[in-house]
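methylmalonate-semialdehyde dehydrogenase (CoA acylating) (Halioxenophilus aromaticivorans), 500 aa
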Amino acid sequence: MKKIHNYIQGAVAPSSSKRVSPVYNPATGEQIAEVVLSTDADLQKAVDAAKAALPAWMSMSPLKRSRLMNRLLYLLEQNAGELASIISEEHGKVHSDALGEVTRGIEVVEFACGAPHLLKGEFTENIATNIDSHSVRQPLGIVAGVTPFNFPAMVPMWMFPVALACGNAFILKPSERDPSASLFYADLIKQAGFPDGVFSVIQGDKNSVDAILKHPDISAISFVGSTPIAKYIYETGAHYGKRVQALGGAKNHMIVMPDADMDKTVDALMGAAYGSAGERCMAISVVVPVGEATAETLRKKLVERLATLKIGPGTDNQAEMGPLVTATHLEKVAGYINAGVSEGAELVVDGRDFKMQQAGFENGFYIGGTFFDHVSRDMSIYKEEIFGPVLCMIRAESFDDAVRMINEHEFGNGTAIFTRDGDSARSFANQIQVGMVGINVPIPVPMAFHSFGGWKASLFGDHHMHGPEGVRFYTKLKTITSRWPTGIRSGADFVMPTME
Ligand code: NAD
């Protein structure tokens, strides 16, 4: 059985651990590898490597770090196809979607190439007579990232390019369900010429995460995953005096107004609800048509389109949706569909009926696109994150009802409105209590030079990822006030300094 290891000090590093976790190919259902679940001693090696590299790395000019980042950008572009295949094999998403994820990650590397500009400080001349003040942003030191299974390249790339560009050393703890991508880009980072030790990968589970949380030499943690774990990371990280940004789960609503272009809306909804088998934190899992006529038209068109949804392995170029990540996750999603039925929602399209026919893929973790109508706000399928291809329709009488429903939901990651009316769109953007808002855009993932993050139970901490917020998260502010050279010469001053 292939074994997936750590990456420390610029090389693949076997672990002393006896504990391993299985890695599957979700398209076939077969176990294809096992990943080591690292020990505290493995983490210590990564920390030691980072500590050794940091003095030179922190004091390297941002322009030099930017040149390394440019080389990494080139290597990632050259190897994007191979990286996408690695992702698709362990995650299950179709190859084109995996390539899309890699592209969105590469955009953060492009952003990080601007390190010299991003790290420029501020200067005020003469804050008082002959006294100047300037502020600089300095790296934190060693920072860590703990990432989820659903974007094994993009989510780590929300973090490490910015952390490295700012002069930190970065330790990644990727998801144990699809760990191979991390070793692939670790090798590209090495090839680009980054010093050994500034980027490490520690494979593992809760034990490794807890070791990171408690380690006194790690200054900050970026986390992306489910809400209960995000809350745990935030609270525990804060307890150990770390800076934490912890992004959690989601339940993203899309409002459809009566004036929306229904064909375009249904196309957008299909991709947003069923793309990547619904395993996206920005997937639309609740559609909220306003008015009965809107609901009926939407339902009819959606059911027609769902009948043509092409499900297949990630290697099938025709497939629009692949399998779920593991058999356990498949059971969980099917369990939610059962719950929806017993709670009284109308199961219009039942994905549990789906059987994969393609030879060799019969045992993959597939489920069909599922659609519930007449969902109500007290049902578990509405309140909780399912993280599968299950779309709930909840009918609203008015725009205000729809907005209130979203604002009262526990999560606040992403949302969208489909309308031709500027007034509805503007009011929506203004009133909605959600971090990322789309107007006729179903998955409004901010570009790399803006920042990504939700509100409410979708983010703990106060910094969003990448963009300007990422730079702030990975640096600390120092403000220097200086007087040259005559002040001291005139003798000591015992009065509280004020502006003269
Ligand atoms: P998860 O919370 O199970 O795991 C995330 C990471 O935490 C993994 O690296 C895992 O090893 C680690 N982990 C798991 N249990 C832990 C524990 N008890 N203590 C410490 N660490 C632990 O999430 P997942 O299933 O890998 O990913 C799916 C979730 O991630 C969904 O809820 C999804 O919405 C969320 N997500 C959110 C965003 C966002 O931007 N808000 C983006 C992607 C995914």
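The first helix runs from residue 40 to 59. DSSP finds 17 helices and 23 strands in the chain. ok done for today
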